[in-house]
TrEMBL record:
Family the entry assigns: Belongs to the RNA methyltransferase TrmD family.
GO MF terms, alphabetically ordered: iron-sulfur cluster binding; metal ion binding; tRNA (guanine(37)-N1)-methyltransferase activity
GO biological process: tRNA N1-guanine methylation
Domain of life: Bacteria
Residues binding S-adenosyl-L-methionine, per UniProt: 116, 136-141
HAMAP family, per the entry: TrmD
Gene: trmD
Function: Specifically methylates guanosine-37 in various tRNAs.
One cellular component term from this protein's GO annotations in UniProt: cytosol
Organism: Candidatus Blautia avicola
InterPro entries: 4Fe4S_Fe-S-bd, 4Fe4S_Fe_S_CS, Alpha/beta_knot_MTases, Flavoprotein-like_sf, tRNA_m1G_MeTrfase_C_sf, tRNA_m1G_MeTrfase_TrmD, tRNA_m1G_MTases_N, tRNA_MeTrfase_TRMD/TRM10
Official protein name in the record: tRNA (guanine-N(1)-)-methyltransferase
Keyword Cytoplasm included in the entry's annotation: yes
Amino acid sequence: MKFHVLTLFPEMIENAVHTSITGRAAKKGTISLNTVNIRDFSVNKHMRVDDYPYGGGAGMVMEPEPVYRAWKSVADLRENNGKKPRCIYLTPQGKVLNQTLVEELAMEEELVLLCGHYEGIDERVLEEVVTDYVSIGDYVLTGGELAACVLIDAVSRFVPGVLSNEESSQFESIQDNLLEYPHYTRPEVWKNRQVPEVLLKGDHKKIQAWRMEKSLERTRQRRPDLLEKNRPVTTAFFSPTGGTRKAAEIFTGYLTQNPRYLDLTRRKLRKKKIRFSSRELLIAAAPVYGGQLPVTEEPLFANLQGEGTPCVVMAAYGNRHYDDTLAQMKKRLEEQGFICIGAIAPVIPHIYSSVLGKGRPDEEDRKILKKFAVETKKRLEKGRTEGFASVQVPGNPDPEPKQMKPVKKTFDSALCTNCQSCVQKCPVNAISQETLEIRGDRCLNCMCCVKVCKAKARGYDCSQVRQYLETHYSTPRKIEFF
Ligand SMILES: Cc1cc2nc3c(=O)[nH]c(=O)nc-3n(C[C@H](O)[C@H](O)[C@H](O)COP(=O)(O)O)c2cc1C
Ligand code: SF4
Ligand code: SF4
């Protein structure tokens, strides 16, 4: 990440950024700082950059030309595919910096930060160069430099490699609009104050629960306004062989630290009615079967009931196409009281091929999933004040059910230990407990039974479909989101 700072006081920025963690990151080259002194672009022989305001009044105003030239010295050099880097003017009139905006900015390759002084900068140059107006709080500083340093520090923490462990930038409760729980270190007793018992016992589940409780209690006491914005996230997924689950977990991890997972691959959970309030967020994830939602006896997601609850739908597919799946999911959930504010179709490994979707989601996919998570947070923030907008997705919400040719399955009774794993894990109860035979009319051809059979008694032959898929759909597709 490169930061270019247009300023009258470069040393202020240099000193702050080249210290501590950002200093170490700059040394390593994980971030880089380029300060540009606006005074070097003065058009005046006395090197002045300010003048009296038209219309009178107190103070001086920074002239447009030096600011424009300073910006141009960076922006022209940096022009990438005809796109100039985002230029942020630090001003109390801007959008107040929060964690979502920080994460969004951290995804840029470079940023230009413009620091004003005196009474401000001539409006015309702001109109010409500025893309974002950002404030660090409702108070006034003597100049934009300290605000720029705050922004650089907050954004740098999200740049991979800046913190020693990338997760540590995620590991903060402010992500979920909660304050962090209290921290303790040695000694166990200090001035008669004891470290809470639960932290000394090593029971991670209990520690987790205690931290969550303290987080909530603290936010309630100190920042009730934040608590208002906290939105519990539930990810409901169907995933017989784990590909969809993985993509859903990565995406959810970028959204929240405290998700609830509902594994709808389990028949029991598909039958249970689950209600969601308007203050929650649902992520519904399913794999694509023949371009549609898999057909199960208890239709997927039919047990979930919203109340104007925002939801994001995810159709994970094996690099052929997702066709009508997103449209079907959106329609189903909206009929049940949800508002579909986003949709995404990640590529995952195809169960019938070792080529299609191999290694997905990969690093590039993770970046896109992260980008979409930030976009989702922005939509949630906007929705709080303006109401949620239902997103448009491609595909037919009511496609004709597709008849798919069953895949040939094999069973070697000599290897079978009758462990019953396949019977229990089959998502549609298609395997007889007694005979271990598969009921063809129920079977989804998901291959979960093959995957869970440790004795290797089950196998399948999908050579025909594999050949067809690999001939036509081997070119890796990019994740799409709406
Ligand atoms: C019966 C069946 C049909 C499938 N149809 C499609 C399809 O139309 N397009 C596609 O890209 N992937 C298709 N796939 C691949 C799945 O979407 C996905 O890659 C994986 O097999 C299932 O995800 P899971 O690991 O979460 O169970 C199909 C898989 C199965 C089992
Ligand atoms: S019997 Fe069919 S539906 Fe059940 S796990 Fe096996 S392939 Fe999947
Ligand atoms: S999982 Fe394999 S070993 Fe266990 S009952 Fe099924 S076929 Fe037999």
